[in-house]
Amino acid sequence: FSVTKELDVFDALSLLMKPEGVLVKNEHYMEKMSSLFDYSLELFYDSPVICSQVLIFGSNNVDFFHDPVYDHGVDTFLYGNMHDPETRYDLMHAYRKNLAPKE
Fold first, then answer.
1. Residues β-bridged to residue 25
2. pLDDT digits (tens, 9 = 90+) for 37-86
3. Model confidence, pTM
4. Residue 15, H or E segment
């Protein structure tokens, strides 16, 4: 969907986000997200109700692979503790960092 001749919906949303913001979208949008954000992550998991599901995360400041994980106190019923270093990466399917670190 186009917002203007130059911008689609994802382009416009990426411009409206706070610098530390995270955009989350379901389905396979890894190519688009990785073209807009410095850090992109694809989570792939099986759901007993709707088969498999994909979530794509994009951010310019949140490094999904290396930044600390916070427990926000939300109970999980399907998956165990994703804050444990042993299980943190279990659902990660793809990760992209698009810019080299600044020297």
1. 56
2. 998 888 877 766 667 778 888 999 988 888 777 777 877 776 666 667 67
3. 0.74
4. helix 9-16
